[in-house]
Amino acid sequence: MNVILHETESLCPVCLRRIPARYERRDGRAYFTKACPEHGGFSTLFWRDADMYESWLRQGVHAPAKDRGRPPDEAGCPFSCGLCDAHRSGTCTAVIELTYRCDLDCRVCFADANSRRFEPGPAQLERMYAAALASNRFCSIQLSGGEPTMREDLPDIIRLGKRMGAVHLQLNTNGLRLAAEPGYAAQLKAAGLDLVYLQFDGLDDAVYRRLRGRDLLELKLKAIARCEAAGLGVLLVPVVVPGVNLDSLGEIVRFGKAHIPFVKGVHFQPMSCFGRFPGGAPADEERCGLCDVIHALCEQCPGELRLEHFVPRKQFDPHCDFSSTYFLDAGGRLAALSERSQNDGDTERTDFVEKTNKYTQKRWRYQPGGQADTALGRFALRTLTHSFCISGMGFQDVWNLDLGRLRGCCVHVVTADCRLVPFCAFHLTDERGGRLYEN
Ligand SMILES: [Zn+2]
After folding, report:
1. Which of 45, 291, 344, 422 has the fewest CB atoms within 10 Å around its CB?
2. Residue 3 exposed, middle or buried by CB count within 10 Å (0-12, 13-18, 19+)
3. What is the 36 CA–ligand 1 centroid distance (Å)?
């Protein structure tokens, strides 16, 4: 029997028209189901664990649209983003795409790199930075692409951002240039870079051959060593695909842990079907939800990582991301600093965006050690210098796009004309690869 868990709206994967959609419980799993009057019904596995889906749903704070003294006009969503009136969240991360060139040609690529041409010059970049900072003065800014290190003027671009007041600048990279070019990591650090957000899918070259088309492990290790030598913090960012690396997430955590304090954590991203991915509507067995990542982590790091350490985001939609925070204790174990509240319907109304930015600025960068006089002071310092974050983000694609979730999104791409568009709307592609947004 199907039980309706939650109703929302989505788009038809064929014609992209807006249609009603809902989450349903079937055989203990949560499915996302919708029907287009012209193109029929679509159903895709959302979370394998419907109990966890429901418990996280209850824990979210579904904030109302910002009060503007009139009802929000949701009619244009997601076609007139920029952000529109109906959007419920400010910007916690602004993504600035520097190029679509890339020195890899991966089978999986949200940006479908090398298929398009767009490269903003200094004057345009200044406008794009200004747009991000006008949206939120304290937002994290992610320089992305394509592969941003393809640009020779990357250090200048970092300096420009810092000069304009960017508090946290992170570089989304495959790490090839960091590995190949001695002194490059130090050059980026000197320019003001705060974090390397490193594509890192595992510790087995078979994984890289399947996802990236070639052996890359040695280069990844070298890139990390170069960042360590430069005192530059690294966040490991694996794409997670069942049958490829879902069974080796624990290994990635153990590797990261061995590289504390330079590796600041692991940010898992289950593969979504947008941009470039191995074709067509995904089979349920190819789907990976955040619940699968969390269960895999707890199974693969028994005793150290526990279900209750993993906290859904408290606002808007709890199914977009999770985080857990640890520090490496004196005995060499990850000790949890986060714990999920057992109370449903948490009514906490702290500013989610501000909280997220403070967390990033504190935890997602290398913190050099200091001196503390007391045992308590030394403990507090260690929870900072040796902190380790395990988080995950579930992106949406045309099969599971939930417009309610989208309106709460705080990860925004800065477009060429300086509008802010939620990441999952910006990269959305229909079943034949047609884009909703283009730079
Ligand atoms: Zn349709």
Report:
1. 344
2. exposed
3. 5
